Amino acid sequence: MKKAIQFFLGLVIVALIYVITMQIYNPLSFEKQVKERNAEVIVKLKDIRAAERAYKSKYQRFTNNFDSLIHFVLNDSLEMERKFVDEDDSVAMAQLKKAGKKNIEKFNIAVIDTIFSPRKLSKEQVQDLRYMPFTEKKEFILEAAMITTAANVEIPVVECRAPYKMYLDTVEFRQNIINLIDDKVNNFGQYAGLKFGSMEGSNNEAGNWE
């Protein structure tokens, strides 16, 4: 009987050690995953934002269509300007004026060659911009529109979102994610995920991670 009790107590101790270990390990492991996955999602959100800003610079509006955005990046160009001489160089400026030339030259450059600088994205990376990391090709939620402000001015707006529940591990960390979303929404009144821009008004396409 004594040995049976000692064996049972031993099992209880092992179980308690396991529970305590998991209570420490699980939150730390979840926090590590959130940090790592957020970092990769943010990289893509920044690239999408760069593409949207370039699209707007040419067409005076944003697009809510990834096909259009990706086609723009891969096939379109932007008009740029460069100066021949430093405007503080009075001699060089006088020579330009005497020759009847302007100091500014306009030229076109492929979108893909300039908007991600100094990084260089491949065609495949651009085509995959629409997909959230750590998912089975689930797309970012992309919206865009023209809205009228209180001053009766029409402005373009865009918003791109990545919900936590779509790119975090909802199997291993189901309860952690439920708690995270509840905390963001109900305690802080924030979006439960990562995003940039706003459909409610212009915010310079700010990201909620910034």
Describe this structure as you would to a colleague:
The N and C termini lie far apart (64 Å). The longest helix has 58 residues, at 2-59. 48% of the residues lie in helices and 18% in strands. It is built from 6 helices and 5 strands, in the order H-H-E-H-E-H-E-E-H-H-E. It is of the alpha+beta class. Strands 3-4-5 form a 3-stranded antiparallel beta sheet. A two-stranded antiparallel sheet has the order 1-2. It is elongated, with a radius of gyration of 26 Å. The chain has a domain at 32-77 and 129-197. Residues 7-22 have low confidence and may be disordered.
Considering the chains and any ligands shown, give keywords for the structure.
alpha+beta, 18% strand, 210 residues, 5 strands
Q: Kindly state the percentage of residues in helix.
A: 40-55%
Indicate the mean pLDDT: 86
Q: How large is the count of helical segments?
A: 6
Helix and strand content put the structural class at: alpha+beta
Q: What's the count of strands?
A: 5
Task: Give the topology string: H per helix, E per strand.
Answer: HHEHEHEEHHE
Shape: elongated
Concise summary:
The chain is α+β, with helices and mostly antiparallel strands and 210 residues long.
Give the secondary structure arrangement, pairings included:
Blueprint lengths: L1 H58 L6 H10 L1 E7 L6 H9 L5 E7 L12 H5 L13 E8 L5 E10 H4 L6 H14 L5 E5 L13
Antiparallel strand pairs: 1-2, 3-4, 4-5
